[in-house]
Amino acid sequence: MIDLRRLRAFVALAEEGHVTRAAERLGMQQPPLTRLLQGLEAELSVLLMHRLPRGVRPTEAGKVLLDEARLILARADGVADRVHRAARGEEGSLAIGFTSSAALHPFVPKVLRAFRESLPGVEVSLEEAGTAELVEGLVHERLDAAFVRSPVGRTPGLRIDALLEEPMLVALPVGHRLAKKAASRLLLTELAMEPFILYRRTAGPGLYDTIVMACREAGFSPRVTQEAPRLTATLSLVAAGFGISLVPASMQRLGGEDIVYRAVAGSSKLVAPLLLAMRQTHPAPAVAQLRSLVQRMLPAYQVSTEPSQ
pLDDT by residue (tens digit) across 62-89? Predict the structure, then answer.
């Protein structure tokens, strides 16, 4: 393998055409520069420079090497730059997971779009799954970061950033007696006799437990008649008239003429958090860039949590 120092010396000599000027350009003395050229010629077993009374000039073999040397050195310089960019998290890859409800929070797509625009050198792959699957992906380093709804701080080796909180709304099928009430807010006790449709606890324990605990504090246990694998499926069952549900306020962005949303009065604990989970050790360099971007975007972020009419 040709020594890059010899190639740099050769290119400087060829471009300057003079040993003294080439040495000054490289910041070295003439004798070491001459030895680098001689070493390169010995390594290739070919004369690369004509020694002239007032300088040097590449031979035919030297002209061929000059073209190749410029490409090699440019590539070598580029490699170093890419390595440094990757170490700073500006190049490489990033695998991001999210739960279905987290993906529907408008902050998440805003972050993902801003990340791709600011760091186009990072290849981003996305995966939607339940909280348990996402945590497993983080622990086994299949994922680098994940937007989740459930507190997973007890999982060893994970760091959790609490980002935002939003209230939960009652989702009612059109025509339901509670949907016809003039009041825009419902008491949780008014839902005591209603059939509940909930997101499966194994997929999203945080939201499930929040709903059950809030109902119990209101004096009743929710009558869960259906469990759905995804929050979007929960809303489909509500629209079909199978029951009611409690969902994060951002879910109403899905729209649909068959669902009416109502706020809940007197229950401050019915909130849905948005969290960013990542590994504490050996994180991908791009994770730091993602985390920094999230922290910069949070202060300016606002979302309406009132039910749309």
Answer: 999 999 999 988 888 877 776 776 667 7
